[in-house]
Amino acid sequence: LGDFDSLTESELQSVKEKSSRRTRFSGGKDQTDTEIGLEAALALQPDLIRIFGATGGRMDHLLANLMMLTKPQFLDATTCVEMIDRFNYMKMYTPGDYTLLKQEDKKYVAFTTMANVEGLMLQGFKYPLENASFPFGRALSSNEFVEEKARFSFQTGLILMTQSKDE
Q: Kindly report the CA angle at 63 between 143 and 130, in degrees rounded to 5?
């Protein structure tokens, strides 16, 4: 589903031939294709939604896809949405206590504050923290797992966690 505006005619023809269902939206809509897709997926009440290709290509698409999860209508969905590309695994978190498993092929882990964060604890990482506070937009990048599992928690805010690798 989407407006299919970035596809060539041959790519669009391929989609038509290989898909049993398609929903085409106007290019002048107020929502991005990813938002429409996420709403459709959430209506099915899944345990997990994996979004592939959300980070490649245009920078405005990347930012729109990352910021989409901060919208009120999607905050409850953060627990089941993952964004994945060749180099990154990303997941948004609301306040709570979490255990992270290291992605097998990823070296780094980053925590980016998508809102003001208070009470951040990082345990089991190369650079641990205890009861730290950071404003919106702070990137705590290039951290690493000490073992295969680690914990983090925070009391207020919103955090985008990214596990990544270099080329």
A: 30
- Helices vs strands, H then E, count in the chain: 3, 10
Q: Looking at the domain assignment, is residue 130 inside a domain? A: yes
Question: What are the angstrom distances between the C-alpha of 140 and each of 18, 49, 153, 167?
Answer: 42, 25, 14, 20
pTM: 0.82
- Judge contact between 48 and 82, C-beta under 8 A: yes
Query: Is 40 contained in some domain?
Result: no
Six-digit token pair at 5?
């505006």
What CATH number has the domain bearing residue 136? 3.40.50.10240
Is 151 in a helix, a strand, or coil?
strand
Q: Which one-letter amino acid corresponds to residue 36?
A: I
Number of domains in the chain: 1
Q: Which domain holds residue 149?
A: 89-167
Q: Is 80 part of any domain?
A: no
Q: What is the mean pLDDT of each run of 10 residues along the chain (167 residues)?
A: 68 75 65 84 91 81 88 85 91 96 95 98 98 97 96 98 92
